[in-house]
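Submission sheet (multi-component)
Chains listed below:
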Amino acid sequence: MITLNVNGETHRVDVPPDMPLLWVLRDVVGLNGTKFGCGIAQCGACTVHLDGKPVRSCILPVASVGARAVTTVEAVGQSPSGKKIQEAWLALEVVQCGYCQSGQVMSAAALLARNPNPSDADIDAAMAGNICRCGTYSRIRAAIKQASQA
Amino acid sequence: MDKPTYARVDGATLSPSTRRRFLQGGALLIAFAAMGRRKAWAAGEEPSLRMLGAGDADKDGAAFQGFAPGGFIRIGRDNSITLIVPSVEMGQGIYTGEAMLIAEELEVGLDQVQVVPAPPNEELYQQPLLKSQSTGGSTSIRGAWVPLRQAGAAARQMLIGAAAAQWGVDPAECAAQRAIITHRPTGRTATYGEVVDGASRLPVPKDPPLKDPRDFKLIGRSVRRVETPSKVNGTAVFGIDVQVPGMKVATVTACPVFGGKVASVDDRAARAVPGVRDVVRIDNAVAVVGDHFWAARKGLEALDITWDYGPNAGTSSNGIWADLKARSETGQPVQARRDGDVDGAMKAASKRVEAVYQLPFLAHATMEPINTTVHVRPDACEIWVGTQVPTAAQGLAAKEAGLPVEKVILHNHLLGGGFGRRLEADSIGQAVAIAKQVDYPVKIIWTREEDIRRDIFRPAYYDRIAAGLGPDGLPTVWTDRVTGGSVMGHYFPGGLEQGKLDDDAVEGAKETPYRFPAVQVDWVRADPPVPITWWRGVGPTHNVFVVESFMDELAHAAGKDPVDYRRALLQHNPRSLAVLNLAVEKAGWGNPLPGGSGRGVSLHDSFGSHVAVVIEAAVDPAGLIGLKRIVAAIDCGLAINPDSVKAQLEGGILFGLSAALYSGITFAGGRVEQSNFHDYRNLRINETPPIEVHVVQSAEGPGGVGETGTVSAAPALGNAIFAATGKRLRSLPFRREELRSQGSGRDVLSKGPAGREPADNDLTRLARTGE
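Outcome: structure written.
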């Protein structure tokens, strides 16, 4: 049994220790907002926060999470930076197909939490690990800036 | 952007018997073109709406009492309004666009409606332009433009008629706004919900008058999309997110060589993996079923499969290219167009220019990997998936399950990208073949590796193009020979007869924005030994790269500015000329740029729209291509939701630039050489320049938009690279090795056939840690 703190709730899960956190969240805990995109930490669709820091859950063994708090897209709106990001995302109509946007929102919320006024270069550095096939990048950049002014 | 409105896509309160009652309630039918003929709802459609939240509402037997004029509108006695949209949402904003068409004429706000996707039903939801219930080809708005407005107008007329009859007044004295009918002389009002019973008894008007566009309240305004709130908080349900009670999770590997089969499987190690429940073998693939995806994946890795590779084990990219070249030179072409004295004009030309262009196979790489959830029961097959072709998928599943089509219940979902991949139902057929061997629901998820390697690819093309120039430098004759596989031959049942023209193969080549005195366009069919299909932008994405790159070559051969050169050929085409002029003006065409930089332009008329794009790029001594700025101008006729038009241009251009810079599927030993986002690369935010999109105000009927930006991208970039370096790149993806300056000491980390791995270790670190 592995004990996880996900979005403020404690879950005890009976899974292999090498099972990536992504699949524990999706197939065991039942939180499907976090997405599978590549399985090799190339696309960022699976981004969640560990103690507020963004990580790629598709390659993170669940046993390595320990006592750190896991936050997923379902709960990121409860933090001030997450809420601002979600609001800016909607205000600027960032989203197209939306499949990568859970990861985009999580990466952006983590950026805004540690850097309230990011430059273009800061945004590029924080967001370059998140692929969007629909090509929403210019709106992502604008939305992060709008959120930083909110 | 204007003040947004919003609506929810979830929470629909329709249930199966509710919907039966809609149709029992009266002979209410709106017959418009191919949309809207009445037919009893097949059992297979019912749960699709239930999936969207109707759920248990019907358990008490309370049937819907309301107004259901045709397939698109449901209004309950409680004034609940549901709009059922025929096209699938894959990012293009069509739930919103189609809802706007209905809501405009129905006189309701988008904040007052729930939008739900149509269940499979060709009778009700056939797309008039595609002649099937499909979403693709940038046709949705063009197909829906008249029928959906007529549906709204007819319903409004019936509701007003019912209120007027109830009040004993002239309907002409009544008006509707935001689902409330007002009798103007007295000020009496009724909600739509209050008159649904009366409206249900009225005949459906055959040809309801449509609003004057000057009176539009929604159409032409940028409004908030209806489904996006669920996509930023994790509540959106894509096919891959479906949870069915008792469901197991599987992953699958098909023979790495197309056409190969499973010879034998040793699954002992796989079955020993904790959490593995079953190993299922089908003709050409093996699936492992587990309690969760991780168990299934570990199990799959533990399989020892012996394949019978079949006849394609020797397939290679080199072989395919050699075949395309040979057939281009010696094959029998199918003529698409021949006008004027082509041979005579070529002989008489002051100057002749010719070139060969090559375009690679492409994968779709939708962000949501291919997946299907299936439950095969003795008497029915239930499917949860996101597909562009719900009825075709239903039919294929029925065949695979050995059930009548009405016993296949398909619940369609949001698509995590389509780009043409989900016009194919191959993976749904495979999923049924696997699921029918187990007695529980199973969600089959392809790994990204499987998604890339077992994609159905955009064909490779080998195109020879030539022109003769007159004394003024303008073309007097133009010939374009396309050589490649037939997508239509692959896609349509029965294929395409040899000797017949595949219109897709020459779309964008046969008709260009320009006028030439003599022109010949033909196609040599060369079907490759790998499966091929539609890819965003279809024919134009391929052909416009060739046409617009070559147009640039001709301008330079004539010593003219590429924009002036095009203008001279556009005097008959004011809409294209206008977007060209707008784009170059906004881009500052002609203004000086730093050394190593250049601007390139492309222009095309595709999908009923006119688009010009200017890209500014810089090429460094190592051959690295930097994107500096993108300016686009589009005349798509009346833009229904202008912000969505801009978004589609922005995204479509970046999609095309990913392909131009990085993408290419190659084969060796019959296998696809790429496997994931490290070797099938995609543009990232740090490579994305500022993008401006200018939407021309137009009163023309709407054109298609979703694919137009993709069409523009590669030629605009290729022309910018030429302007920056003087080097003409005629093969995609652009190889930066060809752009390296002589004597440049800088080496470029190169790996894989695409050869454009980022040298930047930081990127790898970023991808892995998110920091």
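Remark: The CA atoms of residues 123 and 141 of chain A lie 7 Å apart.
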